[in-house]
Amino acid sequence: MLGGSLLSDKTTVCVEGNIGCGKTTMLKLFKDQVPGVEVLTEPVCKWQNVRGHNTLGLMYEDPHRWSFAFQSYLQLTMLQNHTFPSKQPLKLMERSLFSARHVFVENLYRSNKMSDAEYAIINEWFDWIFENMNLNVDRIIYLRTSPQKCYERIKKRCRSEENCIPLEYLQQIHNLHEEWLMGGSKSNPNSNVVVVDADQPLEEMEEIYFKDDATLLHVERIIEVQS
Ligand code: TTP
Ligand code: MG
User: Fold this and answer.
1) Which CATH number goes with the domain that contains 85?
2) Which ligand sits nearest to residue 142's alpha carbon?
3) Is the CB of 101 under 6 A from ligand 1?
4) Contact 91/10 with Cβ under 8 angstroms?
5) 20 to 30 A Cα–Cα from 100, which one of 45, 106, 179, 218?
6) Among residues 63, 92, 69, which one has the least CA distance to residue 220?
7) Count of beta carbons in the 10 Å neighbourhood of residue 168
């Protein structure tokens, strides 16, 4: 899954972790404080307005009916970010095609919200894209949180579509992140994953990102190597 050398022209790092773990907050910090980084936050607003349709809302209201359509569109928007030509040496992306597939689609299928045929079609698309397009991901930063913390943060931020998310759903999403990024699973064979304990208050995470040698500094070194 992961490929490319850190010495290649462009480096792509994807930030992953449960819903509400602090991905966007982290990306904003990088955008403001680290030169040479192109930050691509997740296009949630696109999902909320596909030619006037709030597909994120539809998916939460009736996942059996809408999850396939939603994940199909989401896959397109992720591909748009993967192929976005970065002007900076480091492209920092919120999420990826890989978490959409290995976490969210997988969860919808395992919880019987996506049918066998829908799952097969999404996977045909995913496999074709993976095999035919150069999705260069050099590193994943995994913001690892407890589902309980994410639950509290989601309640606090009040994204209206997410009012109905139960703790149990966050536990499932957490488990699949763990399976994908920590389990040495087949879906992530050559993993280059930096794990960050992101349970601390978001305000305190800044200190961790900018002081912890294993995370932010590592990314800065990538920029240094290239410049
Ligand atoms: P996240 O991708 O987890 O983004 P976030 O902004 O909630 O995370 P953070 O606070 O860490 O920045 O989820 C965004 C919403 O989209 C959330 O309601 C879950 C949903 N989603 C899916 O249903 N399927 C998917 O494949 C993805 C990537 C997200
Ligand atoms: Mg976000």
Assistant:
1) 3.40.50.300
2) 1
3) no
4) yes
5) 218
6) 92
7) 11
